[in-house]
Specification:
With 636 residues, the chain is α/β, with parallel strands linked by helices. Helix content is 52%, strand content 8%. It has a six-stranded parallel β-sheet, sandwiched between helices. It has a five-stranded parallel β-sheet with strand order 10-9-11-12-13, sandwiched between helices. The protein has a two-stranded antiparallel ribbon with strand order 1-2.
Length: 636
């Protein structure tokens, strides 16, 4: 009643600013109060039914010793009032059960966010999928209220123990609470119920209670100090200074590269969030964005706008006023009005976000909001200088929604360096003078280049003590330096169709350089007969020096070595996993057992001879392409 009066007063005061009685807010408040005080309310209503039998056989109400438990007078009036009042807790239990078991699944499928927010008091404390525990909890509370009404001490104790044991078992099995530690705490608190039993040894019980009181007091003080310190720290600096919102297949490797570069910068004091490293529970994802993140960096790729989890992250950032910036890759296009209006057609599973409180309308509003965000536009070619320029811009720029006109930046490969290309080339060669390891990558594939840069950053410290083994990344149209002995080939989809890759591989084989293949994509497919046939058919148009059959021969030799998987864009590519693979690559580079490539043993010059030999047209290799593929698949 008090809550209803306060709500009506609140609505009356806000009449000019709000429409209607806001019944959903009232339902939420009343529901929370009933959940909290359910045992107290139901226990008070059932008080007339709890009678005590005196030695002389007379039965009186426990709470009211002067009222006899009979069907006459005052006791009869108490029973009538209690019977009418029971309608409230019984109705609440029935409605809560119906909403949780019947309506909630339907409304989640329909993405009815208004309904979900209204009845959130039933399930918001529990992890997704455990909403039914609210009904189980109400059943337990009903049992604890009804058992004291039953006559007979033995049966009461038996039923109470049974109810509590079943409650502990269900809690231990379901782990329903959203915070894992709460499940343990509930189990411990229920188990401590034995302390409330009457005991003959009063002194012993007093000592135990005193010890528990002191322990709980110290624990409360510790939690208070820890919480206050965390509050002060969060007020000035949140745990994650940057949150990288990205689509795995389009920018997974680039996200890893940005994190590697950001954490090396002096201006970055907090952590950089990448889901592979920092996310163990998907239900906490949006909480990290809304409450633990200072800046959200959206890595704009072609398909990021159609990924529901990415849009959920961006929507959460908008709702919680998290500073946001878009790093637009070459294939990114800002959301059009057509996409916004037809979003559910293009992304039908967006309605699944309703279970987390994000409606379709909120996502559509976010798409329009993204057009106004500050944007850093990247060119088509990626290198280490450009990556550092992006990170520097992210650190120094003031990121605030709606300031695209002021903060929009278009970077190019010359943006952060005024030296001409010739001077930069000289400086680069001086930096890696004497290097024995070169990384060959398809510069047309930005994710492959990002993989090469991450590989360089992670392997370099491991081989730094070995003279000349620090790898460098070859630029487009560049041959390997004279000192190079090992070519590390980043194998991405279609990389061997790049004429620059073909030319470098053939020239490296002519110099008898060794090779180490690195599988950089889950979708990479080992060359087949069709590939070799295509090489023969197009050899005359590639501009490759040497005989047309040489490229097919060299590619065959590349995969005679056991490749190493190094895929930063993988769904399980945590920093620990990449470090293990980087150690493997460093070991392979240093052990000196890689086999040199050669062109001298291959004299098949005509397409007819190659076609006649099919896949066996080259000299036998220690490991066939098929066997190598199986080994790599097993290692990945």
């Amino acid at each position: 009643m008090v809550a209803c009066c306060i709500h009506l007063l609140y609505v009356a005061l806000r009449k000019k600013f709000a429409d209607g009685l806001e019944i959903s807010v009232l339902v939420k408040v009343m529901g929370n109060l009933m959940i909290i005080f359910f045992i107290s309310v139901a226990g008070a209503i059932l008080a007339p039914f709890r009678c005590y039998t005196h030695p002389n056989g007379i039965r009186t109400v426990q709470e009211f010793g002067g009222v006899l438990c009979n069907s006459d007078g005052e006791y009869q009036k108490m029973l009538i009032v209690a019977g009418i009042a029971l309608i409230m807790p019984v109705s609440f239990f029935v409605i809560a059960s119906y909403v949780t078991i019947v309506e909630l699944p339907k409304r989640m499928q329909k993405a009815d966010v208004a309904f979900l927010k209204t009845w959130s008091f039933l399930y918001y404390r529990y992890r997704p999928g455990a909403a039914v525990f609210s009904v189980i909890l109400l059943l337990r509370n009903i049992g604890l209220v009804i058992v004291p009404v039953i006559p007979g001490g033995a049966i009461k104790v038996l039923l109470i123990v049974l109810i509590l044991v079943v409650s502990i078992l269900i809690t231990s099995f379901m782990l329903p609470w959203r915070i894992l530690e709460c499940n343990y705490m509930v189990t411990v608190l229920i188990s401590m119920g034995a302390l409330f039993m009457a005991d003959v040894d009063v002194d012993y019980v007093m000592q135990v209670c005193l010890a528990l009181f002191i322990a709980m007091f110290l624990l409360i003080c510790h939690v208070f100090v820890w919480g206050f310190a965390k509050y002060l720290r969060a007020k000035h600096r949140k745990p994650f200074q940057y949150f990288l919102c990205h689509q795995k297949s389009g920018a997974g490797a680039f996200a890893r590269l940005l994190k590697c570069e950001l954490i090396r910068m002096n201006g970055v004091k907090g952590k950089v969030f990448v889901d592979c490293d920092d996310l163990q529970d998907l239900t906490k994802l949006f909480g990290y964005v809304g409450f633990d993140t200072e800046h959200l960096i959206i890595l704009g790729t072609k398909d990021i706008l159609t990924r529901k989890w990415c849009m959920g992250e961006v929507t959460t950032a908008r709702i919680h006023n998290v500073k946001t910036v878009v790093v637009a890759l070459p294939d990114y296009e800002p959301p059009s009005e057509t996409l916004v209006e037809e979003y559910q057609v293009h992304v039908p599973d967006v309605t699944e976000l309703a279970a987390l409180g994000i409606s379709l309308a909120a996502v559509q509003e976010t798409l329009r909001w993204m057009r106004e965000l500050p944007t850093i536009e990247l060119p088509g070619t990626l290198d280490s200088r450009l990556t550092r320029a992006v990170c520097k811009k992210l650190v120094v720029m003031h990121v605030s929604p709606g300031s695209m006109g002021k903060n929009g930046v278009q970077l190019s490969n010359d943006a952060e360096d005024e030296l001409d290309k010739g001077t930069r080339s000289v400086n680069r060669k001086a930096q890696y003078n004497g290097s024995k390891v070169a990384i060959l990558v398809d510069y047309k594939n930005m994710e492959a280049v990002a993989t090469a840069l991450v590989l360089q950053l992670m392997v370099s410290p491991l081989v730094l003590s070995s003279g000349g083994m620090v790898p460098y990344i070859m630029t487009a149209n560049e041959e390997a330096m004279p000192t190079v002995q090992i070519i590390v080939v980043i194998c991405s989809q279609g990389c061997f169709g790049n004429p620059d890759i073909a030319r470098v591989l053939v020239s490296s084989a002519a110099r008898s350089l060794t090779v180490l293949p690195i599988i950089a994509e889950d979708g990479f497919r080992f060359p087949t007969k069709d590939f070799y046939d295509e090489v023969l058919a197009t050899a005359g148009t590639t501009g490759m020096l040497g005989k047309p059959s040489h490229l097919a021969a060299v590619v065959k030799q590349v995969f005679s070595e056991i490749a190493v998987g190094f895929n930063p864009q993988g769904y399980s590519a945590s920093v620990q996993d990449l470090e293990v693979r980087a150690n493997t690559i460093a070991f392979r580079l240093l052990e000196g057992k890689l086999k040199p490539m050669s062109l001298e043993d291959y004299h098949l010059t005509s397409p007819e001879e190659l076609e006649a030999n099919s896949l066996g047209l080259f000299l036998p290799a220690p490991n066939s392409t098929e066997a190598n593929a199986k080994m790599i698949s097993a290692s990945l």
